[in-house]
């Protein structure tokens, strides 16, 4: 039975913006379907939901009266009295979603309860009153949302590219699919199937269905129980950590939340196991007493506040560390849940002793997929190796040399793999290696992009790469651009791509192909269209390229890097305006000594 919440209760509930983009509609409708006891939920979108969002379920359906009433603000069947407020707060039943959606889109509802002979169709849009009529309908509910924000042009204009909106939809879809493995979920976009998830008996099977064997077989189980919180779920094998994010999920008491703070806790034990700025996958389910967590602090309801945040942070770190240790990714630390007090006490630095060991990840520190000119250490076919970089007489180069008269370029010192130090007339110049690389790659890429000149390719024995649905979309969305960067990537179906060719000079081992594709995805993820702002794409590619290229340099490599840097138009700054180099003058030195 539906009831309109009395104002006393509705006022208690923080009003929030329910609908900000197509993904929020998908979230609300899919949650409703699951709440209605559906065994199967089918979501189809056209144009990333901008044209049509359709959700069909086989749940309990609605009576003719309820089919009209459900569009009233604060109409919910999920709470009857104020005593239930705790429950609404927990699950976000506020009776607002359908009302909010109907206010900004054209909505058609078809619904029938299994016990009824005949179903109901309701059409509602904007402020027009709902029109109901009897129809023949399968039992369950079918909602079609057309032309979202048709009456709020500013909102509609604010939406991102179809690719970006679709990725957000997939995220919301998966957030529900992950907490309800027993329900079948299907998602299609413009007729193309993105996910088809069968009912699963365990979370792990659901994860496997979503991400494929590759990720799922490597998952490490997490399980801890304290009086504060119970944490269960899975974390990814360090070797599968990825540059692109998206496979990170926290749930509390059965609903998704995001938390940069807890994210840090999970990443901490991986620090020594994965390269910088790689992120492990995780699917962590927290359970705690409802009064220990406030889920209503954010209107979109994905941010939550825990009473004992600091403690849970420590428990997370320990749980992840222990799980990794048990699976021999790190020597196990002294963390025995059975013998320990209920809430383990953790020293700030951990008492785990030295659990570090070199990363298992096999990546060549000097390998850089975006470096078109092969690094000197990379295996290079002399026939295809591009001409040695000419040290051009660019203004930047000349000017700097006049000013500073770099005396002996071959007296370079590499410090801590991070800096190159070289004497200049006024003192010594310190070059930040990573930033220098960023500048060099940036200019190279910008040039390629501006010329629309495809980078020469080398074909390789085709490598199949399994991606997440979102990553797959990203890679396949702009085939011309990807091709012009020297990649030949084809859709293989099932969120898998086949890589047939890479830019010339790249190492071609299977793992390195994977790394390349990850970096390409990270670069393409910037939702900026190439035509508008090629420099943003170039900068983002350069940043990821430079980050992965860290490693020790020998003298020749350092020399090459310095030459390449000073061949740039703007050697002093990174594309985002940070300094690539500084000069410590003799005066400054004298002051110090
Ligand atoms: P809430 O989910 O907070 O109750 P909504 O606006 O999302 O508010 O939905 C209002 C009401 O409409 C629900 O409480 C439920 O009774 C009914 N409803 C919505 N979607 C469905 C569905 N797919 N199947 C059956 N009933 C539904
Ligand atoms: Mg709802």
Structural key phrases:
22% strand; single chain; 8-stranded mixed β-sheet; elongated; binds adenosine-5'-diphosphate; binds magnesium ion; 5-stranded mixed β-sheet; 593 residues; alpha+beta; Heat Shock Protein 90; Ribosomal Protein S5, domain 2
Please give a structural write-up.
This protein has 593 residues and is an alpha+beta fold. Among the domains are: 191 residues, Heat Shock Protein 90, CATH 3.30.565; 124 residues, Ribosomal Protein S5, domain 2 (2-Layer Sandwich). Helices cover 33% and strands 22% of the residues. The strands form six sheets. It has an eight-stranded mixed sheet. Helix 2 packs parallel to helix 7. The chain is elongated. It starts with a strand and ends with a helix. About 15% of the residues have low confidence. The structure holds adenosine-5'-diphosphate and magnesium ion. The site of magnesium ion (MG) has 4 residues, from helix 2.
Q: Which helices and strands appear, and what pairs or packs with what?
A:
Elements lengths: L2 E2 L2 H4 L11 H14 L4 E7 L5 E6 L6 H6 L5 E2 L8 H7 L5 H8 L1 E7 L6 E7 L5 E5 L4 E7 L6 H6 L3 H18 L4 E6 L2 E6 L5 H14 L3 E6 L4 E6 L12 E5 L2 E3 L2 H8 L14 E6 L5 E2 L10 E2 L2 H18 L68 H10 L8 E3 L3 E6 L2 E6 H19 L5 E10 L2 H9 L1 H6 L3 E6 L2 E8 L6 H15 L9 H15 L6 H12 L14 E5 H7 L1
Parallel strand pairs: 2-9, 13-15
Antiparallel strand pairs: 1-4, 2-3, 3-8, 5-6, 5-8, 6-7, 9-10, 11-12, 12-15, 13-14, 16-17, 18-19, 19-20, 20-24, 21-23, 22-23
Helix pairs in contact: 2-7, 7-8, 7-13, 9-10, 12-16, 12-17, 15-16
Magnesium ion binds next to helix 2.
